[in-house]
Amino acid sequence: MERRDVSNPSHLLTLLLPEIVVAICALAVLFVDVSLLRQKSIEVRSRASSAITILGCLVAIVCAARNTPANAFAMVDLTAVGPVVKIVLLALTIFTALISWEARFTRHIGEYYALLLLAAVGLMLLISSNNLLMIFVAVELVSLSLYAMTALNKSSAASAEAALKYFLSGGTAAAFMLYGISLLYGLTGSLDLEIIASSLQTHALEPLHYLAIVLTITGFAFKIAAAPFHLWAPDVYVAAPTPIASFIASASKVASFFVLARVLLIGFAGGPGWTTILAVLAALSMVLGSVAAIAQTRVKRLLAYSAIANAGYALLALWSGEARAVSSLLFFVITYAVTVLGAFGIVSLVENDGKRDELSAFAGLSRRAPVLSMCMLVFLLSLAGIPPLSGFFGKFYIFTAALSGPEHLRPLWLVVLGAATSAISLYYYLQVLKQIYVVPAAAGAKPLPVNGPATFAVVALAIIVVVLGCVPSLLLNNLGSGLSLLASRL
Question: 3-state class of 267 per DSSP?
Answer without folding.
Answer: helix
